[in-house]
Design goal:
The structure holds 2 protein chains of 2 kinds. By secondary structure, chain A is α+β, with helices and mostly antiparallel strands. Chain A contains 8 helices and 8 strands, in the order H-H-H-E-E-E-E-H-H-H-E-H-H-E-E-E. In chain A, helix 1 (about 5-30) packs across helix 2 (about 30-40). Chain B contains 7 helices and 13 strands. In chain B, the strands form 4 sheets. In chain B, strands 10-9-11-13-12 form a 5-stranded mixed sheet, with helices on both faces. The chains are: A alpha+beta, B alpha/beta.
Chain lengths: ~250, ~325
């Protein structure tokens, strides 16, 4: 047997071994592995072999938000990260899982190029995978645009905290938000370097059926522009963070 | 109700009625102007610690530190006085004003509220202090507080569960060491000032006086390993959208001593900004609370103790620190021994 052939066999054997090891380890903690693999942190060798470090094992608490047909909507909350970030997933009975909302953006199929073009102020709508979101609203038969927009904003918040977002279409809804959640965190937000805005400066004249403001507890006031397909699924969503009012809790 | 006159060591300029929930019930302590008297001590978690302790005074909504002449937490009505530091005591003019509730300065001589408005408008803004003032700073608590005192402290949602100490280091004997990695440090960032301030702040918050805080290096790491020192790592870096976590000021995994990250400018939008040093220190102490001791808050940043640095309401408050219960945990850990 020639040396060349031996080398080829060795390479194939090594690749196969890596593949098998990776398949074995990553299947043990498949969801945790997907998240770990998308993060910048962690050793490359672990990621290549599908090994999930101890700090990622049993890290996420899974809550079923809804069950419909052969699918279920899950909320995954990080218990070890101090900010308890969350992920929303759509899982079918075959256990195929798709991330509806997640970060890093890799989890929802957003390329680095899109991120470069977006920037911080416009990143919020990148957190949701529209294909998976549309799959969800079709399964749920959501035909009203208002319901679709409400669900979209709901997913951007942490659904285990039902007071953590509010759609703002006029100054009345804004007043209601401020009375429910007084602007007590202005010092913290000023300290954290974010842009504080005055409530009266939000321009509600722009609001329409497809353009709304949404207050999210850890992001502030975000302007969304929705573009719908003929079947009322979402074609695209543009977002822009306007600023923080002073009742948010941007994480640290 | 009994009444006592209690002064501070040296000339005491505080003129007010101070009351606190002493274990000696129904006692009101009056601190008189320019009296030299025995330092009564302070108020800790609502209880007076008798002896040469920390002179913190309870003013209803907040605690006042007589040594630094400022409140240790922010004024809940601070927005009414935008030109003043939310920590300042009665516009720095205790001879004219009093603040019995910790919320609003009152002018007994003025007779109406207009005088306060005048002061607010004409006063100059206080310069932002570039140092960390922690509650109980440089005030070693003699011995371990009794379980009765610990039990009396206001409870916090912060937790310390030995079972979750995955990365707890238990056998080390050398000086506890915190390494600081710096990536893309903004221009003008005072590295030495940061290391010195962080060390002081941590010692003031229950860490051992032998604590070493230094820039990460191979030699330093080998030395720490050789000495069997407990180690932790703090990283300061610019935020990169898409790669770093979306947190504002920083990030830590609970009970992972090498997970602490502080973002430049303390926000995802603040890369390359240089801000007041005490804010970096506060953010670091907050993350160290998560990473070394598993102190936690809910997803809105709330705990049951708004004065603790682990609670967002205090995290970027100059003077914030760990609460008494948390300090006891730190002092009893390998980081405090």
């Amino acid at each position: 047997m020639s040396n060349k052939l031996i080398r080829i066999i060795l390479i194939i054997a090594l690749t196969a071994t890596v593949f098998v090891v990776r398949l074995f380890f990553s299947s043990i903690n498949s969801l945790s592995y997907k998240i770990f693999n998308a993060e910048a942190r962690g050793y490359y060798l672990h990621k290549m072999l599908g090994i999930v470090p101890k700090s990622y094992q049993d890290r996420y608490i899974e809550n079923t938000l809804e069950t419909f047909g052969d699918k279920e909507l899950l909320n995954l909350v990080d218990q070890k990260g101090a900010t308890h970030s969350n992920f929303i997933l759509l899982r079918n009975k075959k256990s195929d899982v798709k991330f509806l909302k997640g970060y890093p953006f890799k989890l929802v199929g957003v390329s680095n190029k899109s991120i470069e073009n977006s920037g911080w102020e416009k990143h919020v709508s990148l957190l949701i995978d529209l294909e998976v979101f549309n799959d969800y609203i079709q399964c749920r038969n959501l035909s009203s645009r208002e319901d679709t927009i409400d669900k979209y904003c709901y997913f951007l918040s942490n659904p285990t905290d039902n007071s953590s977002y509010k759609i703002l279409r006029d100054s009345i809804s804004l007043g209601s938000l401020i009375s429910e959640k007084p602007l007590l965190n202005r010092d913290f937000i000023r300290g954290s370097g974010y842009t504080l805005i005055e409530a009266q400066n939000i321009d509600f004249d722009q609001v329409s059926e497809t353009l709304i403001y949404c207050w999210i507890y850890n992001k502030g006031v975000v302007k969304f522009k929705f573009t719908f397909n003929a079947d009322n699924t979402l074609k695209s969503v543009d977002s822009e963070i306007i600023g923080l009012l002073g009742n948010e809790a941007p994480a640290i | 109700m009994k009444e006592k006159n209690v002064g501070l060591p040296g000339s005491c300029i505080v003129v007010d009625i101070l009351s606190c929930g002493s274990r000696e019930k129904n006692v009101t302590f009056r601190v008189s102007s320019k009296r030299e008297d025995v330092c009564f001590g302070g108020v800790w978690g609502g209880f007076c610690i008798v002896g040469k302790g920390v002179c913190l005074y309870y003013y209803g909504a907040r605690y006042y530190d007589a040594r630094t002449s400022i409140f240790i937490s922010v004024d809940a009505h601070g927005e009414r006085y935008p030109d003043w530091s939310p920590y300042s005591y009665v516009f720095n003019n205790p001879l004219k004003y009093i603040d019995p509730t910790g919320l609003d300065p009152e002018c007994p001589e003025c007779g109406d509220a207009k005088a306060l408005e005048t002061v607010t408008v004409t006063a100059k803004r206080l310069p932002e202090r570039n140092i960390q003032i922690a509650p109980f700073k440089n005030e070693p608590i003699n011995g371990t507080p009794s379980s009765a005192i610990i039990g009396s402290l206001s409870s916090s949602s912060s937790r310390y569960d030995q079972g979750e100490q995955d990365n707890q280091q238990e056998t080390q004997t050398g000086s506890p060491t915190i390494f600081v990695n710096m990536y893309a440090t903004p221009k003008g960032f005072d590295v030495e000032g940061y290391l010195t301030s962080l060390k002081s702040a941590l010692i003031a918050n229950g860490f051992s006086k032998d604590l070493v805080v230094e820039r990460s290096s191979i030699i330093g790491n080998i030395k720490a390993w050789w000495n069997d020192s407990p180690t932790a790592t703090v990283t300061i870096k610019n935020f990169r959208l898409g790669q770093d976590r979306l947190e504002a000021g920083g990030y830590a995994t609970l009970n992972d001593p090498h997970s602490m990250i502080i973002y430049n400018g303390l926000s995802a939008t603040g890369a390359n900004k240089t801000i007041a040093m005490w804010k970096y220190i506060n953010a670091t102490v907050h993350e160290i609370g998560h990473g070394l001791f598993g102190f936690d808050h809910d997803s809105s940043g709330m705990t049951s103790d708004p004065s603790s640095i682990m609670d967002y309401r205090s995290t970027y408050t100059q003077g914030a620190g760990f609460n008494g219960e948390q300090k006891v945990i730190i002092m009893e850990s390998i980081w405090g021994r």
